[in-house]
Amino acid sequence: MAQRRFFVGGNWKMNGNKESLGGIISTLNTASLHDQTEVVCGAPSIYLDFARSSLDLRIGVAAQNCYKVAKGAFTGEISPAMIKDCGVDWVILGHSERRHVFGESDELIGQKVAHALESDLGVIACIGEKLEEREAGTTEEVVYAQTQVIAENVKDWGKVVLAYEPVWAIGTGKTATPEQAQEVHEKLRAWIRANVSDDVANSVRIIYGGSVTGANCRELASQDDVDGFLVGGASLKPEFVDIINARK
Ligand code: PGA
Q1: Cystine design at 182: which of 95, 97, 135, 223 (Cβ 3.0–4.6 Å)?
Q2: Cβ atoms within 10 Å of 246's Cβ, excluding its own
Q3: Are 212 and 11 in contact (CB under 8 A)?
Q4: How many helices and strands in the chain, by DSSP H and E?
Q5: Dmax of the chain from CA atoms?
Q6: In the annotation, is 129 catalytic?
Q7: Minimal CA–CA distance to 188: which of 223, 150, 228, 147?
Q8: Is 165 one of the catalytic residues?
């Protein structure tokens, strides 16, 4: 099996200011981080330049969203071209807050994924079921359908990280158990094997998000198909360093 490089993304969401984010940045810059782990911090768009110019270059930066075209009359939006122009190499797309607070459809997320990849950004593509969907037994159906739309818009999987984030676990303190995470990740990898290719199934990083903390990260990281994390709340705290270093 291909060795997949562990990937830990921080998603700062709409939190912090230059002072507090500067504090996290200096903690990360001076921390001892596993060099085998790829680390990317998702900054609010107005702080992308600040984050990129203050974070050590061994740490990547991600935008938390972008639009589906390069430029034009789209008030309030930012484009992959602008993100690249700030020296930033990643974008988070399809996050559950974009889907469920801002009503982004699978179709729009697919178009954004295609354009971001064409613009040479790496994409952290997020999927995940809501609590009622899990309780109704439709988790697989939901995450396969979301992954399908993403897959239809990807030519080069080398620049894609798939983030499985059950909506019921995001910001709730209710983390998926390692078994629950592994079960979905394994099924997603099998779906990719059946619908994309063996190579992509072996190489694509499938990361888990939803109430990951310094306390639960090691057990989650020990699961075969958990290739890293997307971390919200805890990415604003010093324990983010422990999460980055979770893989033994
Ligand atoms: P959380 O957020 O770690 O605060 O649950 C995860 C995410 O939304 O990516």
Answers
A1: 223
A2: 22
A3: no
A4: 11, 8
A5: 48
A6: no
A7: 147
A8: yes
Kindly name the residue from 38, 95, 97, 133 that is annotated as catalytic. 95
Q: Whose CA is nearest to atom 7 of ligand 1?
A: 232
CA of 73 to the centre of ligand 1 (A): 32
- What pLDDT is attached to residue 1? 47
Q: Is 171 in the pocket of ligand 1 (CB under 6 A)?
A: yes
Q: Check pocket membership of 232 for ligand 1, CB cut-off 6 A.
A: yes
Tell the residue nearest (CA) to atom 2 of ligand 1.
Answer: 232
Q: 10 Å Cβ neighbour count for 91?
A: 27
CB count within 10 Å of CB 226 equals: 26
Question: What distance in Å separates the CA atoms of residue 37 and residue 6, rounded to the nearest whole number?
Answer: 5
How many angstroms separate the Cα of 30 from the Cα of each of 33, 44, 55?
9, 22, 10
Neighbouring C-beta atoms of residue 119, cutoff 10 Å? 17
pLDDT value at residue 199 = 98
Q: What is the dihedral of CA 8, 104, 196, 4, to 10 degrees?
A: 0
CB contact at 8 A, 220 and 247? no
Q: What's the pLDDT at 140?
A: 98
- Taking residue 33's Cβ as centre, other Cβ atoms within 10 Å add up to 18
Atom of ligand 1 nearest to the CA of 211: 5
How many Å lie between the centroid of ligand 1 and the Cα of residue 8? 12
In degrees, to the nearest 5, what angle opens at C-alpha 112 toward C-alphas 109 and 113? 85
Q: In ligand 1, which atom is closest to the CA atom of 170?
A: 5
Low-confidence ranges of the chain (pLDDT < 50): 1
Q: Which atom of ligand 1 is nearest to the CA of 169?
A: 5
Beta bridge partners of 207: 163
DSSP conformation class of 63: E
Task: Name residue 213's amino acid.
Answer: T
